[in-house]
Amino acid sequence: MNPIKGSIVALVTPFHEDGSVNFEKLKELLDWHIAHGTDGILVLGTTGESSTMSHEEDDAVARLTIEHVAHRLPVIVGAGSNCTQTAIEKGVRYAEMGADALLMIAPYYNKANERGMIEHFRQVADVTSCPIVLYNVPGRTGCGISEHVVEQLSHHPNICGIKEASGSISFAARIARYVNEDFAMYSGNDDMITSMLSLGASGVISVLANVVPKETHDIVAAWHNGDVVTSREGQLKYLDLIEALFCEVNPIPVKAAMNLMGMGVGGYRYPLCEMMPNSHAHLKEVMEKYGLCK
């Protein structure tokens, strides 16, 4: 896969009031992103709440997304698991559906050693026809993908990049040494987009893009066009909004924000639930400051 340069939205999964997946709303969101400058779609990531969805629901969301987007944008599908065999099965299935790439999270809870971590990703990459983007988010998984593991996996012909969401610019700088035309890096933190671009990142896999897709695209596009000042200004302009979108655990605030915009993406599945009143009031205040409330 040629590296996607730009903003890849980590898309929410919309739910009906009864908690079932709202597939019609999902199609609306996909069309909205295509119309507003998003450069790629990620479904079934952390923001997509796949951790509370069944395998059958995951498959249905992936299939609808791939078919509805119909090659208008690249589609990345989250296929990770802490069970290597499950990750293999999901990866093969989504590749057969026509996904452009797979996002593979570090095997959470198990806390594998470096050999186990390398084998986990390698075994999936060896059997799927779909390029793999590693996903390093130790704050969620309880374990990180080490620099040595990144270096080893960056040479695999079917591993095309990493979503780096450790929040450490120092760690990002160390693994940036392995970025090349066959191995890309993406910021996994919306408050570090320009910082990561300065280290050679191709773009961002973004929660913020669910709310301001064009503006998130523009931050990355300006950088790649050589306009560092505009990129930096865009990053700094949206810091308060980014902070508000993470004032509670993702994706609780971003779905609340989208509902404040009148987008009707529904609620959550337990253990995720509605925001605390003080957090919601803060989010609404910030959204109003940016002129985003309906």
UniProtKB/TrEMBL annotation:
<dbReference type="InterPro" id="IPR020625">
    <property type="entry name" value="Schiff_base-form_aldolases_AS"/>
</dbReference>
<dbReference type="InterPro" id="IPR013785">
    <property type="entry name" value="Aldolase_TIM"/>
</dbReference>
<feature type="active site" description="Proton donor/acceptor">
    <location>
        <position position="135"/>
    </location>
</feature>
<protein>
    <recommendedName>
        <fullName>4-hydroxy-tetrahydrodipicolinate synthase</fullName>
        <ecNumber>4.3.3.7</ecNumber>
    </recommendedName>
</protein>
<dbReference type="GO" id="GO:0008840">
    <property type="term" value="F:4-hydroxy-tetrahydrodipicolinate synthase activity"/>
</dbReference>
<dbReference type="InterPro" id="IPR020624">
    <property type="entry name" value="Schiff_base-form_aldolases_CS"/>
</dbReference>
<dbReference type="InterPro" id="IPR005263">
    <property type="entry name" value="DapA"/>
</dbReference>
<keyword id="KW-0704">Schiff base</keyword>
<feature type="binding site">
    <location>
        <position position="205"/>
    </location>
    <ligand>
        <name>pyruvate</name>
    </ligand>
</feature>
<keyword id="KW-0457">Lysine biosynthesis</keyword>
<comment type="similarity">
    <text>Belongs to the DapA family.</text>
</comment>
<dbReference type="InterPro" id="IPR002220">
    <property type="entry name" value="DapA-like"/>
</dbReference>
<comment type="subunit">
    <text>Homotetramer; dimer of dimers.</text>
</comment>
<dbReference type="Pfam" id="PF00701">
    <property type="entry name" value="DHDPS"/>
</dbReference>
<feature type="site" description="Part of a proton relay during catalysis">
    <location>
        <position position="46"/>
    </location>
</feature>
<keyword id="KW-0456">Lyase</keyword>
<feature type="active site" description="Schiff-base intermediate with substrate">
    <location>
        <position position="163"/>
    </location>
</feature>
<keyword id="KW-0028">Amino-acid biosynthesis</keyword>
<feature type="binding site">
    <location>
        <position position="47"/>
    </location>
    <ligand>
        <name>pyruvate</name>
    </ligand>
</feature>
<comment type="pathway">
    <text>Amino-acid biosynthesis; L-lysine biosynthesis via DAP pathway; (S)-tetrahydrodipicolinate from L-aspartate: step 3/4.</text>
</comment>
<comment type="function">
    <text>Catalyzes the condensation of (S)-aspartate-beta-semialdehyde [(S)-ASA] and pyruvate to 4-hydroxy-tetrahydrodipicolinate (HTPA).</text>
</comment>
<keyword id="KW-0220">Diaminopimelate biosynthesis</keyword>
<feature type="site" description="Part of a proton relay during catalysis">
    <location>
        <position position="109"/>
    </location>
</feature>
<keyword id="KW-0963">Cytoplasm</keyword>
